[in-house]
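Hi R.,

Here's the chain you asked about this morning:
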Amino acid sequence: MPSLNLYRNISFIFIVFAIIILVAVFSFFSTKATILITPNPQEINLSFNLEIKEDPTQIELEEKDVVVGKMEVHTRKGSGSFEVLSTKTVDSEIVGRVEIVNKNNRDQTLVKTTQLQADNGVIVRTNSAVVVPAGGSVMVDVFAKDPATFVDTDPGNLVIIKLNPSLQDKIYAISDKVLTNSPREVKVLASSDINRAKEELGEILLTELNNEKMVAEGDNFVLSIKNQKADSEIGAEVDNFTLEGDIELKVLRTNDEQLANLILRKVGNLDLSGLEIGKIDIGNIEYLIIEEDLAGSILVKVNYSLFTGINENNPLLDKSSFVGRSRDEVVGLLSGQDLINDVEVLVSPSWRTSLPKQESKIKIIIAQ
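And the predicted structure, written out as tokens:
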């Protein structure tokens, strides 16, 4: 008969084998996977006409593109001095521009072609007659007296040759750039300078109205500059110019809740299945006034950009496409999709390389 020890050994081996089988079965059925999705938001542009009325009917609010609101108009006359940023390269007799300084107690008149001499002996002439006020200065273009012998001249002071020697240390010229007869870059007033000045004038108005508590951050408005006039013509070689004009700011006051609901209604007409819609931010709406002389209402064109992101109902995230596949296969299926920026697949236990064969054991997490 087999000994008692033999029975014990066989029983022990059987128990160990059973445990191994149970662990394997448990590991098989307990495999879980998590797919981490980093979405790539997609921009959607909405554009529609909106009627803003002070007293619309309930039917208009429910069936038409109408919200409660009104328009406030603020105007200012504004002006400012602005730097010219546009340039061009020119080839001319003018070798530069100098500042005539007058530290005397009397105005000084200088005729056209007044001679100015630099430290290196080069002589230039003024291109126009000027009157230099006492204690002040003026700018004037200069050209070479003798182009054949002219050489580039470094920045510095220039003596007014025919001025009384006793005044030459009080009335003199200064060049802050090299005087040269080579092709040079000069500032030229362009349309872009005018447009930039108009924008800066608008900022001046906004600052004033903000200080007066008449307009606040987040308000919807349309700003325009009317009757603008510059003191120099486009194409003029000037360093600075003055722009003045009538500045008009139209602030649109609307019922934000009604407008947000209208946008959601517009979005509802789009095919956005499988996409998550971001929060509606009324402050990001752009307006273009189409008609403001309507009886009791204003017609505007609304432009609004909103962003959508992928959600779990999107066909791309159908779990049946992932069961039993390897990590690399799942990453390959999801990578490169327009709606997905990044994907990471985690499988538990870590030694498993494939996802479980049950959809219920696959979890999808979309980063917010």
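The domain at 92-182 is CATH 2.40.30 (Elongation Factor Tu (Ef-tu); domain 3).

Let me know if you need anything else.
M.
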